[in-house]
Specification:
Number of helices: 7
Largest sheet: 7 strands, mixed
Bound molecules: 2-acetamido-2-deoxy-beta-D-glucopyranose
Strand content: 15-25%
Structural class: alpha+beta
CATH architecture of the largest domain: 4-Layer Sandwich
Helix content: 10-25%
């Protein structure tokens, strides 16, 4: 959410003069090869990437891996160890290839101070085995620089290294249930580093505070994102050092134009998978999509029975809210040539063969359907026609800090079929994961809203039951309680959906 702090206009200037250090910068480990901020991603058929940060540049980042913890017989290395102005760390990436599908792999980042971890490799496109994907959006740092909550709840140590102070959070619930889902999508708003000025201690040390929040957040997330593929796309909080209108020009180099997001996830996210369809036009469209993809801003991947497309609701379409030249905006992008994102989206959606991947999902940050009048109109104008035309089944957004479920809808009207084989996409908002800005109240209702929850932190789970049935659950982060459940039936009779 964009927050206006007109009275704080002088702040970035003060903050630039970091005389009174107040930022909570984590302690630098003695062994600077110690890996931190681990993040896995689905990168291509039979391949995953692993990104991690170190407090020194690595000449040759390497990971050993294998299907048994005492036989890490494969090795992947790269020369990718990059940083940016204001960052204390280097981001390292390697690509693990030749993975057997749906298999537990053990891995060890090569370092004089690292341990063996494990992950589950991606399912092959077309595998119809049921699985669950979690949706977490608008998740920020927890603790002194972020949000805090205080109910008491017992912790089950499935992932033992979760910091005890995280024991009531979405991260803790993701840890407790780690065996119940196969990967996570997070379309935008990570860490909330640009909200550093909400804590008085940071006021005179903004530049460090911004980096400190990123380091803390990705350290808190690492037990999850180093165990499960964690698929990212951009939100407004990745754009600049703060969201104060007209002042992003004062952000230091390295803290504007999505720099950390791009360095952290640019090489780890997928582009688009080669088509496994037997149809020639599908292959042509998938190849076109690969050339037009711009990870981590827009891209797609396949996993079992789902084809998942990530879009960028921040820049790179007409009147994009964070684009350059937008009055009082965040002056970011473009990241592609004019129309590249929409051309990618059309080619990618057109390539989806429903006999291979019956489910077609899209993830983005800003919703156009939301209670409280919080929809993004330019986003709707740019993306909605394509989603309808190619029969997207479920569209996932955040940005508004609560949970919402809608009936399938097109052009602000509910689909007459409801959840029983609609032509229009079903929409959800899953922005309640928890951050320093707190929850957004539901506000004014929308006629085709079916569920809304703003009492406590929450996130969503999407269960792919079979080729025709999908279930969406909303879960209360603190207790794991099921808040809402719904089923979408799609007949998926057509191999390539094109609707007028
Ligand atoms: C080794 O790693 C652990 C955990 O990541 C860290 O707490 C410790 O300080 C590191 N040791 C050295 C010598 O840097
Ligand atoms: C959860 O964390 C809080 C704050 O750190 C702590 O006071 C409480 O004892 C913890 N509860 C459990 C069950 O670990
Ligand atoms: C942001 O970065 C992109 C890609 O590096 C670049 O093309 C664009 O011009 C930058 N935008 C601004 C406003 O600096
Ligand atoms: C919004 O209105 C619909 C239809 O009247 C209703 O089913 C739904 O529960 C309402 N949602 C909220 C959050 O009040």
């Amino acid at each position: 959410m964009v927050r206006l702090f007109a009275s704080l206009k002088g702040l970035p200037v003060l903050a630039a003069a970091s005389v009174f250090a107040g930022a909570s910068l984590p302690t630098i480990p003695e062994d600077k090869t110690t890996p931190g901020q681990q993040r896995l991603a689905i990168n291509g058929p039979n391949s995953m990437t692993l990104g991690w940060n170190t407090f020194q540049k690595l000449s040759r980042p390497c990971v050993k891996y294998g299907t048994s913890s005492d036989k890490l017989d494969k090795e992947a290395c790269s020369t990718s160890s990059v940083t940016y102005p204001t960052s204390r760390t280097h981001a390292n990436v390697v690509t693990l290839t030749g993975l057997a599908p749906a298999t537990t792999y053990f891995y060890k980042i090569e370092s004089t101070n690292s341990t063996v971890e494990h992950f589950f490799s991606p399912r092959t496109s077309g595998d119809k085995t049921p699985f669950t994907m979690n949706v977490v959006i608008d998740l920020g740092v927890y603790g002194a620089d972020g949000f805090t909550i205080k109910q008491d709840e017992r912790k089950r140590d499935t992932i033992p290294q979760i910091d005890p102070s995280l024991n009531h959070t979405t991260i803790n619930q993701l840890a407790k249930t780690v065996d119940d889902y196969e990967f996570i999508v997070h379309p935008g708003d990570f860490a909330y580093a640009d909200d550093w000025f909400l804590k008085p201690k940071n006021l005179f040390d903004g530049e460090d505070a911004f980096q400190a929040i990123l380091e803390q957040f990705y350290t808190q997330l690492a037990p999850i994102s180093g165990r499960k593929a964690y698929m990212a796309s951009p939100g407004n909080h990745e754009a600049a050092c703060q969201e104060i209108p007209f002042l992003t020009g004062l952000c230091p180099e390295g803290q504007k134009n999505f720099t950390d997001f791009m360095v952290r996830f640019g090489e780890t996210m997928a582009t688009a998978f080669p088509s496994t369809s037997a149809t020639e036009t599908a292959k042509v469209n998938a190849n076109k999509a690969r050339l037009l993809a711009k990870p981590p801003f827009w891209y797609s991947f396949e996993y079992g029975m789902v084809h998942f497309v990530m879009i960028n609701t921040e820049t790179d379409f007409e009147d994009a809210p964070d684009g350059p030249g937008v009055f009082g905006g965040l002056n970011s992008g473009p990241f592609g040539t004019p129309n590249q994102q929409l051309e990618f989206l059309e080619a990618d959606l057109a390539s989806v063969d429903r006999t291979v991947t019956p489910w077609l999902l899209i993830g983005g940050h800003r919703p156009w359907y939301s209670t409280g009048g919080k929809g993004c109109k330019p986003c709707q104008a740019a993306f909605e026609p394509l989603l309808y035309k190619y029969g997207v089944d479920l569209a996932i957004f955040g940005h508004v800090h609560n949970s919402q479920r809608f009936l399938p809808a097109f052009q602000d009207k509910a689909d007459p079929n409801g959840y029983n084989d609609p032509k229009a996409p079903m929409y959800i908002v899953a922005g309640g994961a928890g951050n320093i800005e707190g929850l957004s109240s539901i506000g004014k209702n929308v006629s085709f809203n079916a569920f809304a929850y703003d009492d406590d932190f929450s996130y969503a789970q999407v269960r792919f039951l079979d080729a025709q049935n999908l279930q969406v659950d909303f879960v209360k982060s603190d207790t794991g309680e099921l808040l809402d459940t719904s089923r979408l039936f799609k007949s998926h009779k057509e191999q390539f959906v094109v609707q007028a």
